[in-house]
Specification:
This protein is an alpha/beta fold. It has a single domain, classed as Decaprenyl diphosphate synthase-like (Undecaprenyl pyrophosphate synthetase), CATH 3.40.1180.10. The protein has seven helices and six strands; from the N terminus they run E-H-H-E-H-E-H-E-H-E-E-H-H. Strands 3-4-2-1-5-6 form a six-stranded parallel sheet, with helices on both faces. It is globular, with a radius of gyration of 19 Å. It starts with 10 loop residues before the first strand and ends with a helix. About 35% of the residues are buried. Bound molecules: 3-methylbut-3-enyl trihydrogen diphosphate (2 copies) and magnesium ion (MG).
């Protein structure tokens, strides 16, 4: 698809969902769905950041609530993240993509934290798009953590109460990124499961039925076509459009 003349979002969010059901439908274990899902994520991220003009992509890959899953599944996912960050670092570097993370470090293992830190460090000066992995991420946790940082700054006298505003608050979130314009959740679930509560307040939502491992370039193009038809008003009214 030719993206050059389209009204495209600046920041896209994807809630990566349906890996488990995809695997079950293929008669495989859930872990196989995660593996194929992670390969697809790497492919589709590069497509989005290199071929469409979209500047920021946030991907929800593990929520604070996902620790409720079996130890076997959590351990598998952590090993998979570690392996993928290690193997994909050079690919993102070559593509000039900057990789960042949103989420709490506790209780992630040293092994996964190390690969996260390495890929962050390796890609930190890149300018060809930002890939934000939301890992051990929760929207509630993020807002609490931001409030604690602000409290600390107030106590130390670095800022004053009157300095805090809706424009300043996002500086204290895990990453200081622009708001999410377009939020996609695969697998046909109609909820956001604690993703980007602050950043997605005016996002356009899109819920394709497709399970994430099958969410390919064509599916993404369809999503963007839908986005171009949305009328974003942000609470205002375009009077000229209504009464030309
Ligand atoms: C998304 O797939 C990946 C993670 C949440 C880690 P799921 O594992 O939630 O897959 P379903 O929803 O059970 O199919
Ligand atoms: C949301 O998916 C979290 C991620 C995609 C990482 P879940 O599959 O965990 O969400 P629920 O439990 O269906 O709400
Ligand atoms: Mg799920």
């Amino acid at each position: 698809m030719d993206y050059s003349k389209m009204k495209i979002p600046y920041h896209v969010g994807i809630i990566v969902d349906g890996n488990g059901r995809w695997a079950e439908e293929h008669g495989k274990k859930r872990s196989y769905g995660h593996k194929i899902g992670s390969e697809n994520l790497e492919k589709i991220s590069r497509y989005i950041l290199k071929k469409t003009g979209i500047k920021v992509l946030s991907v929800y890959v593990f929520s604070t609530e996902n620790f409720k899953r079996s130890k076997e599944e959590v351990d598998y996912l952590m090993r998979l993240f570690t392996k993928k960050f290690k193997s994909d670092a050079k690919k993102y570097q070559k593509e000039n993509i900057k990789v960042v993370f949103s989420g709490r470090r506790e209780p992630l293992s040293e092994a996964v934290l190390k690969t996260m830190d390495e890929i962050t460090e390796m890609t930190k000066n890149n300018t060809g798009g930002i890939l934000n992995f939301c890992l051990n991420y929760g929207g509630h946790a993020e807002i609490i953590d931001a409030c604690l940082k602000i409290h600390h700054e107030l106590e130390n006298g670095n800022i004053k109460e009157e300095d805090i505003s809706e424009n300043v608050f996002p500086h204290y979130l895990y990453q200081d990124l622009p708001p999410i314009d377009f939020l996609i959740r695969t697998s046909g679930e109609y909820r956001t499961s604690n993703f980007m509560l602050w950043q997605a307040s005016y996002a356009e939502f899109y819920f394709p039925k497709t399970y994430f491992p099958d969410f390919n370039e064509e599916e993404f193009d369809k999503a963007i076509l839908e986005y171009t038809k949305r009328d974003r008003r942000f609470g205002g009214i375009d009077y000229e459009k209504k009464n030309p």
